[in-house]
Amino acid sequence: MTSCLTGRVSVRVRDLDIATSSDDYFREPPVDVRVERIFAHPDYRREYRAPNRGLFSDIALIKLSSELEFSAGDASTVMMWATVNITDHSTCQSSYARTGARVDDSEHICAAGDDLKQDGCVPGANDGSCRGGVDACEGDSGGPLMERRDEFNRQRWYTIGVVSFGTGCGNPVFPGLYTRVDHFLDWIAQTVTEN
């Protein structure tokens, strides 16, 4: 994700489908907001050699040149979403170890989902026939891994991860790897406070 924030960067707001020039989902047209500053984590690194291949401290914050106003609106039918499950660390680490990549439990979350529409899938059979097929993919870097929690009789969504890297897309052997947000909360708070 951090490696994607190079060159001139802006944020587009109120645009659910970048393939079109306008969206029917908002009363106002899309707006591009200039990025004033990018704060990459100071320990960000990309390792190329086995057995430690991977992205570490792969998180960044962006400061916009102007404030954004948010309001409740209709849910998007255009943006992509998927239901995934957190994969236990030992399973994820053993899968990626075969490729020379390292999964750090303190700063990575692994997650993948099952595609119930794939050929040969027998929903409910518990035979692995539906395994894999749902995952983050190219172009998703920096996107959120969200978790819904019931708190105070309300459902709230929390960003628990940020799409980082993986091997292939929807591969049942290699779940997607996400930067674990809670590991970086102190850095996020300090960066926001100081800037």
From TrEMBL:
Keywords in alphabetical order: Disulfide bond, Glycoprotein, Hydrolase, Protease, Secreted, Serine protease, Signal
Domain Peptidase S1 span(s) in chain numbering: 1-193
Alphabetized GO MF terms: serine-type endopeptidase activity
One Gene Ontology cellular component: extracellular space
Compartment(s) where it occurs, according to its Swiss-Prot or TrEMBL record: Secreted
InterPro entries listed in its UniProt record: Peptidase_S1_PA (IPR009003), Peptidase_S1_PA_chymotrypsin (IPR043504), Peptidase_S1A (IPR001314), Serine_Proteases_S1 (IPR050127), Trypsin_dom (IPR001254), TRYPSIN_SER (IPR033116)
Gene Ontology annotations of biological process type: proteolysis
Alphabetized CDD domains for the sequence: Tryp_SPc (cd00190)
Name of this chain's protein: Phenoloxidase-activating factor 3
The organism of origin for this protein: Amphibalanus amphitrite
Lineage of the species this protein comes from: Eukaryota, Metazoa, Ecdysozoa, Arthropoda, Crustacea
GN (gene name): PPAF3_12
